[in-house]
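Researcher: Can you fold this with flavin mononucleotide in place?
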Amino acid sequence: MISPNLQAKLSTPLKIGSVEIKSRVLQSPLSGITDLVFRRLVRRYAPESMMYTEMVHASGLHYIKGLPKIMEIDPQERPISIQLFDCRPDFLAEAAQKAQAEGADTIDINMGCPVNKITRKGGGSSLLRQPEVAEAILREVIKSVDIPVTMKTRIGWDDNEITILDFAKRMQDAGAQMITVHARTRAQGYNGNARWEWIAKVKEVLSIPVIANGDIFSVESAVKCLEETGADGVMCSRGTLGYPFLVGEIDYFLKTGERLAPPTPIELLECAKEHLRALGEYKGDKGVYQARKHMAWYAKGFVGASVLRGQLSQVETVQEGVGLIDKAIESLEKGYEVELESGLAMV
Ligand SMILES: Cc1cc2nc3c(=O)[nH]c(=O)nc-3n(C[C@H](O)[C@H](O)[C@H](O)COP(=O)(O)O)c2cc1C
């Protein structure tokens, strides 16, 4: 399923400046999702993959003492990148120093976020329209740290302004050590297909590693994307919601040519329970509220999943959530026994 050329390329480490990563599959930064708890789950199945924190507001960081929880990393979790956003080179440089001190292997600058609240203030994807500011940011941040600085962006502002080729070249010239391209415009948000053909074009004009992002939901889509774009790696995003197995499944396939068995609904629910407990422990009540959306994402692929999703999206305590999940697991096990007795599970 993978061409020999691709296999040969993928068997070498991904080099981000001085940092070598033994995996070509990355877990994207996801605001409100990729906290320490989530990353721990992803890393269990993808121990060699690069993970990203949620994006951290550099100006916000300037005005507080200490670090926000979203910037916290576990000393054992490597390789890890801390993602920053802002439009002020000085605040970004200061934040990058704090990220380096916290133990980040690389700093990533967000130049792709489409959210109005962020673009209005000149951050995220609005930097596509101000390449000189983006360059200044990179130069300033690179000067302030010893670790590689990378960036993540989109293909352009909208269909009339697909500027990625020029933009990416400028970022490389300013010193970026890797670029991740989410192959949608800012105007697309998360709609429509990712336009991987643009990643192939970016790859042709750059010498730094190019990571493909957008619509990587399975082993098949990852391989197809790598074949079509020639990218140096793929980054998984929404495909990991309620499915922290995805990065590991793709990584395993790229390394061995073999598929891992997908988790059963019971295994998914066990994972949901672990996620809920860990979020409760790590963040208290706030963690439980955040866990609601995760729980709902896990509960799929079996009879009764939609009812369970509704219930889980309203839980108030860890115990309540665990109770609901345990009941669902029990009835799935009973169903499985019935299937076994009737021979259905053997089909
Ligand atoms: C809930 C959510 C939060 C996100 N947060 C971030 C973020 O903090 N930083 C970032 O660079 N991209 C963020 N993104 C964008 C994703 O990393 C990714 O680029 C995008 O979802 C496209 O990939 P996909 O089609 O595989 O989902 C976020 C996307 C979603 C859906």
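Model: Folded with flavin mononucleotide in place. The chain is about 45% helix and 15% strand.
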